[in-house]
Amino acid sequence: MANKKAKKSDDLSKKVKHETWEWIKAIVIAILIVIPVKLFVLDTMIVPTGSMIPTIMPGDRIFVDQISWKYKDLKIGDIVVFWTPFVDKSALAMLGPFDKFMDALSPVHYAGHVKYVKRLIAVGGDTVQLIPAPGHPYFYNVEVNGKIPSALKDRLYTKVGIFSNPNYYYEMANPQKYISSPDYQFLAYYNQDMDYTNYYDSVVSKWGKYVTRDASGNIVIHVPKGYFFAMGDNTTDSFDSRYWGFVPMSNMIGTPFLRIWPLNRFGVMK
């Protein structure tokens, strides 16, 4: 009887070890598959803010194609996903455990950075300015290289940030010098949230002369080579290039192509 119990216990132990080993192999294989796919093929993100309303709603989870844009030119007006060129502490705090885990699989130099989803407005070598939109006294159309791109002709934007003040990025980096400014609280908050002073000192100085004025005195933005300019569809509630500047092309992740959550909005993104 004792021998039978010992044999049964031994068999159970072997079964547990076998099952454990099988699970370990499955997890390792899954990781070996997931990491390359995540890094080079397909990424996912949840959109925590309303900067792209109505195109993308807060809480939407999207899949991002990381390959196609590398083999065909991105078009002005495309929706793009990219790593912020700075640390965004408040956006980072909005991420759940899954998204933090997935982002942790990304290259280490993006640690602390988050993904933004915006609309591509211009790329390196382009000029950008805002012109009054007919019939909309408080909104503007975007001109890129002197023309309104067809993909942006029905999109309206507010004239804020760098389009209203050619020194805006500098003020964001040095809010203590502008305590009397009506924008002071905004400048001070985001300066701390992004550690923008260090970012400005180490990065913005490389951009050269990126602001000029045309013959009518309107502000013209010159996008440096190797960078792009992006803005959100929900123009009155989008923290974008108008406020903090250009994004290196190397930070580009890809283009969203499928909304997988919520289920009542599931579908291909256009």
Helical proportion, percent range: 25-40%
Tally of helical segments: 7
What are the secondary-structure elements, in order, as H or E? HEEEHHEEEHHHEEEHEEE
Biggest beta-sheet profile = 8 strands, antiparallel
- Please tell me how large the radius of gyration is: 24 Å
Which key features would you list for this structure?
270 residues, alpha+beta, 8-stranded antiparallel β-sheet, 4-stranded antiparallel β-sheet, 7 helices, 12 strands, globular
Explain briefly what this protein structure is.
The chain has seven helices and twelve strands. The protein is α+β, with helices and mostly antiparallel strands and 270 residues long.
Notes on the structure:
- By secondary structure, the chain is of the alpha+beta class.
- 30% of the residues lie in helices and 24% in strands.
- It is built from 7 helices and 12 strands.
- The chain has helices at 2-40, 89-94, 97-104, 168-173, 184-194, 196-202, 241-244; strands spanning 42-46, 61-65, 79-83, 115-123, 127-133, 136-144, 211-213, 219-222, 227-231, 247-248, 252-261, 267-268.
- The longest helix has 39 residues, at 2-40.
- 26% of the residues are buried.
- The mean pLDDT is 88.
